[in-house]
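chain below, 192 aa
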Amino acid sequence: MTTQEPRPHQRIIAALTSIATAGAALSIAMTTGASAATPNFKVVSGPGYSVKLPVSWRYWRGENYGANAIAHFYYDPSIPWSVMTVMPDADGGGLCSPFQAHTLDLESPVEDNLNFPVERRLPGEGYHELSRTKLAFEGIVDPDPLPDNGLVIAIPPVTNGCYVHEWWRIDLWLPASDHALATTILDSVKVS
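prediction:
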């Protein structure tokens, strides 16, 4: 009997602790992350993606989680625990609903490690479907104290109802007071 390897997103949790420690150690001044001034932005890109980040954000590292799963980590040294991960996964079949045949399930890459606030009373709360192939989410990943805002993006074509060319997951941990900034960053994500 073989045991299943942990999903790449579960393995990211361990890396988050070390990122947060590095971010906190590099902080010159502790801030809440809230800012009255509008930040300046820069476009950063990697293999198959681009995103607009505030100029204070830094690339931390890329981490290989398998043949088709390399997570790219960014952080803001002035905001403890702030992290963004951008990760593709070419396992398009992984977006098939286990409950309904031939149905695209954009929640499946999130369900395994995201806890939702207590206020989440109905199935689907914590999610916002932006399109048939794009899902926004918000929740908590233990032990991180900041909310996780993110996206799951399926790259068409969608065949047989749920098989896609590839899919991406973007996670962004920022203080709740910076929700507007998180939305701006996530709205700027482009993948191909």
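The domain at 8-28+41-191 is CATH 3.40.1000 (Protein Transport Mog1p; Chain A). The first strand starts at residue 41 and ends at 46.
thats it, cya
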